[in-house]
Amino acid sequence: MIDVSAPPRPATAAPPRRRRGLDRRHVPVLVTLGLLIAMYATGVGNYENFSDTQVLLNVFVDNAFLLVVAVGMTFVILTGGIDLSVGAVVALTTVVAATLLDAGWPAIVVLPLVLLMGTVLGLGMGAVIHYFKVEPFIATLAGMFLARGLSLLINRNSIPITDPFWTAMAQERIRFAPGVFISTSVVIALVAVLIGAFVLAYTRFGRTVYAIGGNADSALLMGLPVGRTRIAVYTVSGFCSSLGGVLLSFYMLSGYSLHAQGMELDAIAAVVIGGVLLTGGSGYLFGTVLGVLVLGLIQTIITFQGTLSSWWTKIVIGILLFAFIVLQRLVTRRAR
Amino acid sequence: MTALTRHRLFWPAVVLVLLLVSNVFFAPRFFSITLQDGHLYGSLIDVLRSSTPLVLVALGMTVVIATGGIDLSVGSVMAIAGALACLMIGDLPDQGSVGGVLLAVVAAVGLAAVLGIWNGVLVTVIGIQPIIATLILMVAGRGIAQLLTDGQIINVSSPPFRMIGAGYFLTLPVSVLIVAAVVVAAALLTRRSALGVLVEAVGASPTASRLAGIRARGLTIMAYVFAAVCAAVAGLIFSSNVASADSNAAGNLIELDAILAVVIGGTALTGGRFSLAGSVLGAVLISALDITTYTIGIPAETTLLFKAVVVVVLCLSQSAAFRAVVFRRRTVGASA
Hints:
Chain A is built from 14 helices and four strands. Chain A is mainly alpha-helical. In chain A, strand 2 and strand 3 form a beta hairpin. The relative contact order of chain A is 0.19. In chain B, 73% of the residues lie in helices and 4% in strands. Chain B: Keywords: Cell membrane, Membrane, Sugar transport, Transmembrane, Transmembrane helix, Transport.
């Protein structure tokens, strides 16, 4: 098999790209990075104490679970699919974990069990999408109903978690200096990001993901394992959702069927703002990280402003979505 | 007999009848309709009345899906329409004035039409995927609705406005009459003129229809405007029924129910052929499902599980790949 990660490139194609000095594929990510820096600078310029390192670290602490969920979503969107079930799977994970822990199950059993549950759910949705040719939108919508319904069926009230391992994970802080810290969830999330980025960039599976998003038919004709890969990305997303659910239960120390309402939208927004092409085939996990940070910084700025109401978050996210999608169109149109 | 069972609305209709009949075991007087104070009362009327917003939204969604698109913003448009109408009525010196209420209704529907144009332009002129284009308004729209109402629930006490959702005319609920009128108008427009065929052509193959001289762009924008106007009327019925504008609750998750209704009604999500009657049936079916779980005494949360099962079963039954696997033996036997 040919090594897909380093395709032999005709010598004539390379120079013009290099002369421009900027890879077109990097433009959306760079724009997001610029936006992030501009937002941070605005925050520092306008609000007292905004320049504290901890303010920036808190963006990570408060969004670690979203980061993990967005990693899974990136895989799915890179193949040109979509996963609407992530928020519901996150909620189901917190509820099942809290219920089992409440029943006295040890954390060492509960943790792998809930992760397996999310993975199996993702696998099931992927299988339905691939084998029965059901639209990803509808299949994952059914998964969303199923997961949210199950969690409501298990318990419609919020269940507190008192397990020592869970509380330890919730309270554990990794301190760099007095008052400068991150939670263990951030470390887990960053590890997930690094593994995801490595898989996407350097493994055969990762390159196949891009190939399917570029053109599924061509990928199939090239002999790539399209079916297996497509099922695998939904499995990855299911796993990431349940891992995100575990992190959310660390953060909230409770399981609740109404946790993570609308998180699928946040995750999709983060991926889009991060410059991943919604039709698939182009984008970077690093962009997704930036997208999550942009969403987090919007929240932080609105909190610092104090006079702005929470609904401005939605409006600003909507405007950013619009701006980035139009930018994507411009970039891809020039590519043709 | 086979012709009947093969009809695409046969199974949804059977499910609806079964659902309604199953209610009799738990509420013996389910099918009785009585005339009281010149109004028709009864559970069947309630099913119709509670289904009105969903029927309207599903109707608009059908036309959009027929063009090969999808509209996720309908719930937010419902919220915006309700918020604007209640805001304007609340500001009237005399809330009972028919002229003022009419003005508010026209303004709400007009604003919705503008939002529909916005969606349509994003999809056709800028060329964004419909899911994503309407996602922008879905996220930002709810923010706008909350901005209009300032995050509060606006209560109005206006008899003319109350008529829309809770009034009766000629013994029938006004909301049911409005919806019936819209359904009839839409059916006449699409089936007694070339409009329906043109929309199906655009959905089936945009390129071919453009080559055939169909102005696909205008038709698609019109579809989104129709969906938004339907959603606005649905929002007016909803907020009139509760005599208030609640920007969070109005139309929450209705886009998913509406898409479900369209799919139940036999319109494929890939666009092309559509069935307005099927979508109406699907929407009534979903409302009947909600009411049935209520009469049977199952906790309301489990409707989500029911819906998940319904979506999975319906999608699988519509999936050609699934039929090929399950019914292979039977078709072989029939042909032999």
